[in-house]
Design goal:
Length: 118
């Protein structure tokens, strides 16, 4: 169910605070479909990376959320994991010790989540 972009910002920031770590340790991006390979991989591997995602009303609203989190909080922009923009905003913690271990155990290969935000 879509929610307004201010609520998405509050919820994602709340998830980051709950999972701890510095803002810079987190990535953010948008996607068209929460049933796609990126989300499926996260659910199946149970990466422990604090993945959170919410649906905005429009792709423009979703991009506003991403811009806010990158500009004001220092999250890394992730356009590689899900290259097509969409209304779903996602955030996850990069390379947490738990996710590294689960990736090894499950055999999933991690995509390079570091991208420049400049």
């Amino acid at each position: 169910m879509p929610i307004n972009h201010n609520e998405i910002i509050e919820e994602i920031e709340g998830q980051i605070r709950k999972c701890h770590g510095a803002w810079e340790e987190w990535c953010v991006g948008t996607a068209k479909d929460s049933r796609g390979p990126f989300f499926q991989r996260h659910r199946e591997a149970d990466l422990g990376d604090g993945l959170a995602y919410r649906e905005a009303y429009t792709t423009t609203a979703a991009e506003d959320v991403v811009e806010h989190l990158v500009t004001h909080r220092g999250l890394a922009l992730d356009r590689d994991a899900v290259p097509e923009p969409g209304k779903i905003v996602f955030a996850y913690r990069r390379k947490s010790p738990e996710s590294e271990k689960r990736l090894q155990v499950t055999g999933f290969r991690e995509q390079d989540a570091t991208t420049s935000s400049g």
